[in-house]
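Appendix B, Record 12. Input sequence as logged:
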Amino acid sequence: MLPEAKIFAGRHTMGLAEKIAASYGIPMGNVLITDFSDGEFVPSFEETVRGHRVFLIQSTNPPADNLMELLMLCDAAKRASAKHITAVIPYFGLARQDRKDKPRVPIGAKLAANLLMAAGATRVMTMDLHADQIQGFFEVPVDHLYSSALFIKDIEAMKLDNLCIASPDMGGAKRAHAYGSKLGAEVVICYKQRKKANQIDKMTVIGDVEGMNVILVDDMVDTGGTLVKAAEMLKEKGAKSVRAYCTHGVLSGPAYDRVGGSALEELVITDTIPQTKENPKVRVISVADMFANVMKNVHHHQSISGHFIM
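Logged structural output:
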């Protein structure tokens, strides 16, 4: 008989992990992470994992300790003779570093992939990678899930008329068209030019938004500069309302203040990254049930292809 899987988590994503375990229907595994006075830490599984499939849940956004904690959990599981080690990474950090866009820079996403495999991960499960090709950086199976299944249901429930889907940049055009096809909505693209990272020089819109209820879709929101600029421009072009759906709420620096004072009706994100602040315009949808369902299917060798559809 197949032994039941075990779920463990790093400290950063413990809240989401507990929701996933509850949805899966098994208790959280007992892992102890001890801190030394100099900031060094060591994880220890306080129960056997020999011969089991273990799911190790941790998003790897900064600080770097989050990634290091996951790597050490993988290594500990490997050395404790776990049969399968699945790194469940709701938000895969360093994903924006997927190529060399100028000389003498690293490819951080590839480095992170190498580290995870070296640490012992035999499978990786993640959501809405910044670049789909990152899956190819791994030499182990990658389950790449999409939040669109959750977001599309939420958008449909609002029953907005004159619906329009917008991408905040050219890179998200494919995502916007996928949403548009599912919702039967018009699609427009915001074209932006940057002087440097996190600073937009100018932006324009390709398409007509006059009198439309616009939904901006993206894989993440960091400082919020792009979304806020896009929302203001769309309103200037005659949009009736503007909302944004972004999978990963990085929300660094001035993001919360920007969103609060913006033309956005609301910003909808998931709980792949825990939020430490509150904002009346920010609403969080949980991905726990989706991850739990896919994890259960993986463990019982059942199909999960339905969750790969954008």
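Residues 65-79 form the longest helix (15 residues).
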